[in-house]
Amino acid sequence: MSAKSYDEYEGLNRLALDRAGQADAFDAIGDRYNDAFPHKEGQVSSGAWLAGALPAGARVLDVGSGTGLPTARQLSEAGHRVVGIDLSPSMVKLARDNVPGAEFHRLDIADLRGGRLGGPGSFDGVAAYFSLLMLPRAEIPYALGLLHDLLRPGGLMALSMVEADVDDFPIPFLGNTIRVSGYLRDDLRRVVHDAGFDVVGEDAYAYAPASTDVPPEIQLFLHLRRA
After folding, report:
1. Which residue from 94, 60, 93 is spatially nearest to 75, judged by alpha carbons?
2. pLDDT tens digit string along 135-184?
3. Nearest to 47 by CA among 33, 65, 29
4. Are the CB atoms for 72 and 82 separated by under 8 Å?
5. CA distance 17 to 22
6. What is the pTM of this model?
7. Are β-strands 123-129 and 103-106 bridged in parallel, bridged antiparallel, or unpaired?
8. φ/ψ of residue 7, rounded to 5
């Protein structure tokens, strides 16, 4: 990512975007998140790929680590050094309780610039499960570029998004409102390619939260390698 790109990302991140509102929603949700999403077969399968494809003892960044379940625990139990970030203080506390072998920080993805948790090439792997969909589309390419730079050459990333043609769209979520963005799958492939990743695997799952009557969403899981 060029210096100009970092400057552009700084400008985008300081638009009038209420990130605190997103964090407040997840603070209120707390461990009800795992009750509403109890299975996560796609995420578990993708996490198993990442855990197995990384070198032993890899340093892995979990972006939007939530409660730490299942991903941070899965990676930690595989012997990797997990560093998780999340905007919600409640989620960070739950993650620390659930995965004591990992480290968790209350940070925005934009806070990773400037070597906050390590400079370029300081991570072997990245997990970003349903975290980048919390950003407006204008920010997603810059976030991907930042994560690309944090990976070592050839490093791996597991990314999931919901397949939907929406941008910063408000939705009801477990009694709260959050804003989400999504792409159709061909558009998502293009965005990650433009950010410097090769797609080495892909899966899609139909998923509906427990105890709701909403139609299933299509969850896309991309397995990526830093080109």
Report:
1. 60
2. 999 999 999 999 999 999 999 999 999 999 999 988 776 666 778 899 99
3. 65
4. yes
5. 10
6. 0.85
7. unpaired
8. -65, -40
